[in-house]
Amino acid sequence: MQDLPSSIADISDPELLVQWLEKYNEAYRAGEPMISDAHYDLLVERLREIAPDHGFLSAVEPETFADKREVRHPAPMLSTEKAYDKQSLERFVERVYKEAAQIGVMDVLFQVTPKLDGLAARDDGEILATRGNGYAGYDITKAFEKGVIPQGGRGLGLGEIVAVQSYFQENLADRFEHPRNMVVGIISSDVLNISAKQALEDRQVHFVPYATLNKWEGSGRELLENSEKITRDLIQATDYPMDGMVASVMNQDVRDHMGATSHHYRWQIAIKAKGETGVTRVNAITWQVGRTGNVTPVLEVEPLKLSGATIRRVTAHNAGRIREKGAGVGASIEVIRSGEVIPKLENVLTPSDDTQIPENCPVCETPLEWNNDFLKCPNLNCKARVEQRIRHWFRILGNADWFGIKTVERLVAGGFDSLEKIYAMTEEDFLALEFGPVQSRNLVEAISLSKSRPVEDWRFLAAFGISDLGEGDSRKILSFFPLEELLDKTRDDIVALHGFGEITSISIEEGLKALGPTIRHMLDLGFNLQPTPLKSEVNVSSPIAGKGVVFTGTMETGARKDMEENARSLGANVQKAVTGKTDYLVCGAKVGAKKTQKAQDLGVTVLTEQEYLQMLEGGASGDEPEQLSLFQQA
Predict the structure, then answer these.
(1) Residue range(s) occupied by CATH 3.30.470.30 in the chain
(2) CATH topology classification for 548-633
(3) What is the pLDDT of residues 244-287, one digit of tens each?
(4) Would you say 160 is a known binding-site residue?
(5) 39 labelled ligand-binding
(6) d(Cα 578, Cα 598) in Å, to the nearest integer?
(7) Is residue 38 marked as binding?
(8) Which pTM was predicted?
(9) Is the CB of residue 522 less than 8 Å from the CB of residue 393?
(10) Is 115 a residue of the active site?
């Protein structure tokens, strides 16, 4: 894919811009944003300038969650129109009054609530579903079982899954780039890392219905006159990540009259409000190297108080901004700190003459390459990249403790700079690196446990950190090819799969080729991998192949999760809730009558756990029990 011009004003090809917007949006939905929200919004506005009728502008930005059941929304969950300045908000209010007058409504009431920066979802009391494409989302009800707290109780409609901001800043800001990264990981992963698990145990991850948020109500005139104070007051009263405010019309008849586009409700607008800003001076620039080789600038600034915190470091996001804006040593800059954990460079007020961009990697001295606005170290063996890659392995694998970044840095400094070397380490090796006796034993045991504990093969693959093979795409690609076969596949094999484009296929092929020897070595160590069911495998002898199956209640013969995995291996479509597409409801102990009654109403076959097992032993789809004992009990 061709790079975008470094200056937004120079972008003239709408199709190229849309390709990048889709890539940026996919990364954001996966919890791994490539650019800031502000930069993304500017690119959207540039598309609006050069191609105002482009379909991208009228579509809801999609999200996907692999291996989760799709759920149709009773009413669309659309995006929100945005106001970037006071004039845009004035036009919105004026339009509302004009359309309200058409139906004889003169007294229009507005409401303003915080615009949470989390994962949007809908809770109807039985199913929690993501927004998806606006019309159908994905069933993530299991989030409550993991420990997500429903604020105000269940069934309160639309809202967002977010982490408590003050808790995140104090405990997790050095482990996740943004609270949304952690939230997406909790929802999409079956195995949680230690930090996310602790946040859930501390009851600091919430599903917050919009109906429970702090709010302001008043007229349109009051909204326009007091928008900054309204925003400031709501920010101070809300302890969740935010990226603005949402102004909505309260009058239902006006809402009905104004309606919606295919993209957003016309009676609602997002106010992209600035957070608290301040001016400071750049003292130095630190260049950091990430796992994928991106070399990003962090500005070391004169200490500045913002939103109750002392700011000493500011992200400039990429080298292109340093070069374009002159944000070098000595520059006077405006810094913004809103709902973001890390303060951002907002504007350069007085450019610097000292905007030296490194030509070589600050860690390994390899010549750097430009990739759009980003600098990249191409050296796969760069010490910083190695450290981040090893840390990524243990974090994504999720079944071995003790390997924090400080431990990994010491291992790499001691020459243990690959997974092959680390997995061959003995207690004596750790002691030689001046780890204590207890920690050395713990580290050796952690390595052993990471091999023996069950782990999904897609998680194992994702842990290697191959570009464009995150957890979701790893699960998807392994539903087409077994892991051992995947290592020999080419870009042509991959691009032929549904959901994999030409650019990502090239990237995946290159990553598999570069890391193939390491992956094979790790496979030879005998990890306890749980294979992803292949789409091509159909167990014709299984009575549940192709059937929708729901498990509920407490099972006697094994954990419900294990029974679900077994059912998937037999070709079943395991579901979380009874719907019209469910064929069997398998009931353990302590099942409520409501669920069995719903199954009965939908004509779903209800089986006890023993009846289900007997059916599997019978082996033929026609052997299901004629008597449905639970119906009689209900």
Answers:
(1) 70-271
(2) Rossmann fold (3.40.50)
(3) 899 999 999 999 999 887 778 899 999 875 556 788 999 999 99
(4) yes
(5) yes
(6) 7
(7) yes
(8) 0.47
(9) no
(10) yes
